[in-house]
Amino acid sequence: MTKELEIIEKVQLEKSLALQEENRQKPGSKLEQEKINLPQAPLARWFAKLPIGRKQLTVLLLSQLLSILGIAGLGAYLVSRTGHTKLVTQSQSEAQVTRINYMIKINQMGFGFRGQADNTAIINASLLAAQGQIIPPELEQQVRQILRGEINARRIEYATLVGVDQRIIVNANNNRKGEIFNPENLVTQVIQAGEQLKASAIVSKDELVKEGAPLAARLTTDDALIRYTATPVKEPGSNRIIAVLISGDIVNGKLPIVKETVESFRGGYSAVYYRNADGSFSLASSLKQLEDGKQIADLPLEKLNVLQAAVNNPQESVTQQDVEIQGEDYTVTAITLPNLWQETAGGMIPKEVTNPPIAILVRGTPEKDLHMLLRNTLSIQSGIAGLAILLSLWLASLLGRAITGPIQKLQKATERFARGDRQSRSPITTGDEIGQLAKTFNFLADNITESEREKTEQLHQKQLFNQILQARNSSELTLPLQEVLTEAREKLGVDRLFLYRFLPDGTGYLASEAVRGEFPYALEEENLDSLLSLESSDSYRQGQIICQDSVEDANYSIEQLQLLKRLKVKSNLIVPIIQAQELFGLLVAHYCQKEHHWQLTQIDYSQSLAADLAQALGGLALIESKQKEAERTEAQNRQIQAELLRLLNEVEGAAAGNLNVRANITEGQIGIVADFFNVILENLRDIVTQVKQTTTEVNQSLRNEAQSIYQLTDESRQQAEKIQQMLNSLQEMSQSIQAIAENASAAAKVARNASSVAQLGQEGMTQTVESILNLRDTVSNTAKKVKRLGEASQKISKVIALINEIALKTNLLAVNASIEAARAGEEGRGFAVVAEEVGQLAAQSATATKEIEQIVETIQLETQEVVEAMEIGTTQVVQGTDLVTNAKESLQKIVTESQQIDQLVQIISLATISQTSTSEELTDLMQEIAQIANQTAESAQIISQSLEKTVASALDLQTSVETFTVD
Amino acid sequence: MSQYPELLLSSLVQKEAYLNLQVNRSTQVILPMTQTQEVVVREKEKITPIPNMGAFVLGLLNQRSQVVWVIDLAAMFNFTPLNSELATYNIAIISINKKSLGLAVEEIKGIKQINPEEIQSPIGVVNPSLVPYLKGCVFQKPSSMYLVLEPQAFLSGKIYYNSGINIR
Hints:
The structure holds two protein chains of two kinds.
Chain A: H1 2-25, H2 27-33, H3 42-49, H4 52-117, H5 120-130, H6 137-154, E1 158-163, E2 168-171, H7 186-193, E3 197-204, H8 205-211, E4 223-234, E5 241-250, H9 256-264, E6 268-275, E7 281-289, E8 295-297, H10 305-312, E9 318-325, E10 328-336, E11 340-344, E12 347-350, E13 359-366, H11 368-418, H12 433-470, H13 474-492, E14 496-502, E15 508-515, H14 537-541, E16 546-548, H15 558-566, E17 571-579, E18 582-591, H16 600-650, H17 652-655, H18 669-824, H19 829-963
Antiparallel strand pairs in A: 1-2, 1-5, 3-4, 3-11, 4-5, 6-7, 6-13, 7-8, 9-10, 10-13, 11-12, 14-15, 14-18, 16-17, 17-18
Helix pairs in contact in A: 1-12, 4-9, 4-11, 5-6, 11-12, 12-13, 12-16, 18-19
Chain B: H1 5-13, E1 16-24, E2 27-32, E3 36-43, E4 47-48, E5 57-63, E6 66-72, H2 73-76, E7 88-96, E8 99-105, E9 107-114, E10 134-140, E11 144-149, H3 151-155
Parallel strand pairs in B: 2-11, 6-8
Antiparallel strand pairs in B: 1-2, 1-9, 3-7, 4-5, 5-6, 7-8, 10-11
């Protein structure tokens, strides 16, 4: 039982050791193998993996970004929103101004015609018309003049006096007297209302032409928007309406209406539209002013839905934003005008009409300024936002460094610790939670290190005990025991510690001893057992210890004391090593320097050590007793062996194959064996005799067969070899053909290159010939010119000779003159001087001619040389031309020949290609043959081998059978 | 008059005009203008050689219907005679009292103004055989010497005793 326990313990110990070793070997891998429960979502996973610093930075940055961008976005939105609202309001008020501008003229027209209604001429004419009398032409002319004056002054188209019977009395333009004129039923309505009416309407171009209105000719559209005023002409006194004065003002083509608005707002777009009967819209007049003050007239809106909206809501002004007019954005407001107003004492009142409004005013306020403002605001905001983000980034990184720095240090220290660096501690730099954490980590590390150290010690001790346990005899015991004792001695602090071991036969010996430095070894003493009080072994078995603080106080004999003195023992402690009442030995501790009072802890330690040792020694004792038992059994076996040996000697001949031997049959177990043996031998002899005969026959037949098989094998092998040789030569042939093909293609390439190079050369040569011919022409031209120069210089020489002669003669004349003068005496004196001068002049010209002569001579000499050089040059040029022509011809030959070579080589290439393929086919065929031959050879080989084996087996059988002696 | 400063000067120092002749490369002679008739250049053929005359006598020249003896001055002075291959002769004709003689020289140099007081005695300066024909000699800078001929000596005839010339 104890042994099994020990084994279990041992196994556990080994396991723990192995585990520890493993941990020490690869601590990192375990760290990394630690599973982390990361979230599944990829973003969350990424975030979870981030270091703390990054995490904190990311979150801070995100929140900063959100808030900054939120504020910036909200600000931009608010600015944009407010701007747009303002723009709408502005546009609407501007539209109202447009409306006022539009109305001013109608009102003025109304005022004017109301005044004219009181004109006596008009009243008179109206009265006459109402009474059905003829209006005198003077009066009619006067009224026409008035009406014409109105037209011209107000720049309007219609000024017509209509009678209550709706017939024209007088009109301003073409005479339409007597025609019915009741536009928009205005005449009728005025007569009913009794007050001035104003209306917007559409008038056709035909009507305008008929009237002969000044604008009619310029009108581009078929109809036009017109504003009428209808003023009743009343009979003075009775207030009876006797006629109606109609004025009509066309809007189309009249810029002032829109211009006033545009100019009063210094820009923007203003337009007047009218609605046709079919619901479509036409532009009456429009104006757009650009920033630089340039004005563009009659620019239509691109989208007219704002007009339709205004028509649908006649009471309100309709505004639309971001309307593009010629590339610029506008906020456009459209308002409708009532089709009919009535002038009352309280002002103008729109009259209810069923028709939808005709005239629509449009005002476009430019959005450019707003856009500019928005852009500026946005750029400033984005700049500030960017700055704020940068700042927050910097702050976040600062904070991150402050937080993550210590954490990283701590993390690194932890990692180092986990990797086995037990000295690793985290520096404590802060007093916050991280500092506390570091402190805690350091404390933890200290604890772990300490407990590990203890564990290691225990483990070491356990190992030692384990070795003791493993010891199979006393010598194996010594070394581990020595180590245990040395350690224990140090721990106890004693000067000597030894173990006295009892053997099963009751004798004892000093098994191991540990002594501090200078003290003597007890091992060297013979009568050591006298000190151990062996007579009280029973009390030892009871666990009794002997504890002596001073050996001198104990009752030792003189011899014992002397021995103690030799060993310098001052205090003595003896602890028995017992297990289950059996005494295995004694553990003895000595103090040698001075007397010592044994401490309870020392005794406890010694006892526990003794208990451990008891377990170890107990095992050894068991083994030793088992060895004794084994020795006894061996002696019995030796007896049986001797008898067997004798039997074997008798039947030894049988082993050598002699089947004729017989064993002596003795009494006992071995004798029975001998009897059986004899019977077996008898049977065996009969079998062997039969086998011998059979094997001889088999051998004979096999030998014959083997011979023929060998022949077959050899022949097939030779065939295969020859085929192989053929194959090799075929392959060589194929390779050489390949090489020929390659060489041929290379040669073709070279030939082609040569051909092209030669062609190039030929071209070059042709050019050279041309240049040389040119050169020859130039040279001969030059030579001619030089010759001419020589001729010219000869002419010069002739002239000079002439001059020279003249000079000489002049000189003579001068001398003669002088002579004449001299002979003339005093009168000739002046003449003599003149003659002298002439003589000098002649001498000078002679000198000059001499110089010229020399120069001309030089020229002639040089031209002569040039002419000679030219002639030589010409000859050389001619030679050069001939040479180049020859070279050209040779090159031409090279070209033709290289082309021929190229063709030849190509033919060779083609031939080699077909050869190659043929040889390849041949090779394939040969390879197939070779394979078949090889297969044949192999099969023959196999057959031969199996035959050989058979022969060998037969021979073996024969030899083995022959070993038996039968006869 | 300002055009002729030399004239003024010559009138002051009483210089006289002399005809300057090159006899050979190293010898120049001058003779008074007043005793000179004219200078001419004549082809060799225009001078008719006369036989049995002295070696220095070239022949007779018909000059404006006047027959004049022409002599080789160099030869007469016992210098190397004029080159016989020359196509023309430069001849100075001297004349005193209607007696004329042509002196053929290498070159007629022109007119030279000489102060008569500069004329020195030729004795000791030239070969004594020349002295009878000379009035003297003039040294002029830099180092040229002119022999001043005495025309009278040529025309007197007594020097031609062995030449056969009879100057008329």
